[in-house]
User: What shape does this take?
Amino acid sequence: MIVLKSPEEIAIMRAGGKILAQVLHELSAVVRPGITTNSLDQLARELIQQYPGATPAFLGYAPDGNKKYPAAICVSVNDEIIHGLPAERIIKEGDIVTLDLGIQYQNYFTDAAVTVAVGNVSALARTLLEATREALEIGLAEAKAGNTTGNIG
Assistant: This one.
């Protein structure tokens, strides 16, 4: 069922999305060789705290009574599948790092991910990054009023 949002609700979601985008932008700017994924998680928490009313959506999330998610972000490095847990893992030159972040703002949730190429990545990795970016852009072009997720692919 589709629930239409009021202009006020849309404004809140838009504001939450802007916070999310800014935090992801600042977070991705510090991804470099030598930083740990735990450090990225700590920075994400600090950045989110700068916005009154914003909290990390993933932190403490426990669907169906399962163990609570212990971090503010998910960090996946190279061939790790999504939702990697931050740890003392050190980012290296040539890594491909995906940062996944959710923010709750005024009872609405926003969620996005960004992939960062760390320094000089291999030609194969560069090809992968370019192909996934192209696929994203094709999907976004189809994300418009009247289309369903089935239209996007």
Observations:
- The chain has a mean pLDDT of 95.
- The helical segments are 7-29, 37-49, 123-142, 149-152.
- The longest helix spans residues 7-29.
- The CA atoms of residues 14 and 110 lie 9 Å apart.
